[in-house]
Amino acid sequence: MKRVNTKAFWFFLGDAGVRIFGFITTVLLARILGAEAFGLITISVAILGLSSWFADLGLNMMGTRTLSQPKKKRSYKISEIFRIRIILGILVLFLVSTLIWGTHFEARSTGLVIQLFLLSLIPQSISLEWYFNGSHNYKWITFSRLAQALMYLLLIYLFIQETDLLQVPIFFLLSALMSVSILFAVMPVKEKLKGFWPRYYKVREMIITSLPLGLGSLFSQIVIFMPPLVIGYYFGFFEAGLFGVAFKIILLFIFIDRFLIRFLLPDLTNQWQENKVKTKKNLQKSLHWLLFTGTFFAIILSTGSEFFIDILFGEQFTEAAKLLTILTLFLPLIFLNSLFSYAMITSGNDTAYLRSGLIGGIFSFFIILLITSVGNMVWVVWSVVLAQTIVTISFYIEFRRIIILELFSPVVKIFGLALLLMFLPFFNFISYPLSFLLLPLLYLVLIILSGGLNTSDLIWIRMKLFKEQKPDKLLF
User: Fold this and answer.
1) CA-to-CA distance for 224 and 50, rounded, in angstroms?
2) Is 37 exposed, middle or buried, given 0-12, 13-18 or 19+ CB atoms closer than 10 A?
3) Sign of CA dihedral 357, 363, 369, 374
């Protein structure tokens, strides 16, 4: 079990470090360049993220799964996966670049910034993270990600001035290339990448195999990729910048749910096959703790939204505080959805995962598009929360066909109590800064008294935290 905890540590260190360095970089860029320029960066990164999916089509996840299998049972070679990702990366770069330069922009530099960000498709396509993930070698992934994030941060801090917008995507590309170089340098056997380019039938077979995972991932992330694009189109770069800083704060906390899932459910794949009763119990307890953690941080961010925006980004982003207050509801929803999607993937229910992503993503797409086209920025943010709600419900419906958990009671006790406390400041029952200091503490007390987290939940989390120790050393 010590080995599993070590993997969880490296995963947490890498994800947390990258997000913290990335968030500091976001703060610097927003403060130096201003809301409008940062809005353009937010839109460019969203376009890059969407393009990255088309350059991958689920091959990353398929490669990780392939490497996790014994060598004799692998359907595809490492070199084949590597080369197909290169082909797709170059093809998507050409197609999206053609589309960008065929689009009319008021300033030519706008298209140039987006194009420069798109060049990072190349290092992303040749990245070997899927290989190291499949080999369970998280240490070097962590090191390469941290090095990339730190290099990007240092370049921005040392060289970016108010008018240096075009240098930002160049620095982004250089840091991505360095990350790729590290993984290539430490890859155990580089001969595994040698070989002939795969034939057409092999390419088609691999893409058909990987597409269900890829499509499910794409549509489930509509709520992340789409808002900056539609806000930029209907409102402008300034509004996209306001949304970008608020959403970046939310994304900073999302790594917590991924760590918790890997910490609370480190060996879920084997549990599905060995003990269904134990699996159900662990999933139920994990659901309670994920929902509680998401709502706890949502209360902190909601009650302190003006403080966080002002101290981090300055007065020019004050309007983003209202957006952040609403977006905090996104956290418990994404925490729940991570549990459902992780369970489907690890249990091999790729079709259910795809169906969940498609249904939730399509509904989310039209909801965000419709509300953005007729509403204001507050409406848009509510549409993002509504869209994530639909995605979560879609995944839960498919998840219930695999295993049934009790969801109604935890949602009412944990999420309902959090909503009540979050709305108290709006009715002038308690004001800032008193609400920021007291509401999280009050929530902890009430969640225990109401039974949102009961004694068995506390005993279970204690066992997870101290299972390496002997009984007489447990501190509870």
Assistant:
1) 10
2) buried
3) negative
Residues whose CB falls within 8 Å of the CB of residue 11, separated by 6 or more in sequence, listed in order: 138, 142, 258, 259, 262
Q: How many helices (H) and strands (E) does the chain have?
A: 23, 0
Nearest by Cα to 347 from 339, 358, 359, 337: 339
User: pLDDT value at position 196?
Assistant: 60
Cβ(403)–Cβ(277) under 8 Å? no
The structure tokens listed for 61 are: 């996840």
Length of the chain: 476
Cα torsion angle, 318, 323, 329, 331, sign? negative
Cα–Cα distance between 265 and 344 in angstroms, integer? 13
Distance CA 384, CA 368 (A): 6
Could you count the other beta carbons within 10 Å of the beta carbon of residue 468? 9
Alpha helix positions (H), 221-275: 222-234, 237-264, 268-274
Q: What is the mean pLDDT of each run of 10 residues along the chain (476 residues)?
A: 51 75 93 93 93 83 74 72 86 92 76 93 88 77 89 93 88 94 78 64 75 72 88 92 93 81 70 74 89 92 90 91 93 91 80 84 91 89 94 91 88 88 72 74 89 86 65 34
Q: SS3 breakdown of the chain: % helix, strand, coil, rounded to 5? A: 80, 0, 20
CA–CA–CA angle 284, 15, 161 (5° rounding): 140
Rg (CA), the chain: 23
pLDDT, position 62: 78
Which phi and psi angles does 295 have, rounded to 5°? -70, -35
Amino acid making up residue 358: L
Token pair, residue 124, equals 């992303």
Distances (CA, A) of 41 to 12, 38, 54, 166, 216: 27, 5, 20, 10, 26
Per the CB < 8 A criterion, the answer to whether 40 and 244 are in contact is: no
- 386, amino acid identity: L
DSSP string, 220-235: HTHHHHHHHHHHHHHT
Q: Is the dihedral of CA 40, 42, 45, 47 positive or negative?
A: negative
Residues 6+ apart with CB under 8 A from 299: 328, 418, 421, 422, 439, 440, 443
Using CA atoms, how far apart are residues 175 and 377, in angstroms rounded to an integer? 33
Contact indicator for 243, 227 with CB cutoff of 8 Å: yes
Fill in the amino acid letter for 318. Answer: T
User: What is the distance between the alpha carbons of residues 391 and 395, in angstroms, rounded to a whole number?
Assistant: 6
Q: Considering all CA atoms of the chain, what is the largest pairwise distance in Å, rounded to the nearest integer?
A: 70
Residues 336/287, Cβ–Cβ less than 8 Å: yes
